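We give the chain.
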Amino acid sequence: MNQVPNESIRLLRDVDANMVPSGDEVKLLAGNLVRVTQALGGNYTILINGNMVQISAENADALGFEIEKESDESTPKGNLEQQVWDQLKTCYDPEIPINIVELGLIYGLDISELDEGKLVNIKMTLTAPGCGMGPMIGEEANRKVKALSDVEDVLVELVWEPQWNRDMMSEAAQLELGMF
């Protein structure tokens, strides 16, 4: 991951982004002053004019960061189920610096056979039902899992039962957030 400066930086070009937590699309203009608050899973959460916004990994150059390429170190290891879990651990809520697996947002994972590969069904929830970032987090999970070589298709289903609560987070996540 790129080293993220702890100071304000100016956008180098116009860039599409999403408001957090609504998920609304916005265009940020070159020259705007921003502060990066989180750089996890390839995406950047920034503050601009008092608003929190997420810029995707493929637009890192607008922040002056190099767009990272896949490296051999990121080559999936283990069986397909482990590879899927590893991919999901690279997906983050833009407001919380904990991946969606450790947050306890993944309720189920099922892998079945298709003609050309595997179908991965993922049941996930959100920390709050009204979170507009849900579709974006689900799309990111879909894209990252679908990139695995044996995966033909992915279905990410948002579910609301049982309702998520803090107890669903891993101990490591609770420690990270100072909840222990």
Remarks:
- The CA atoms of residues 88 and 141 lie 6 Å apart.
- The chain has three helices and nine strands.
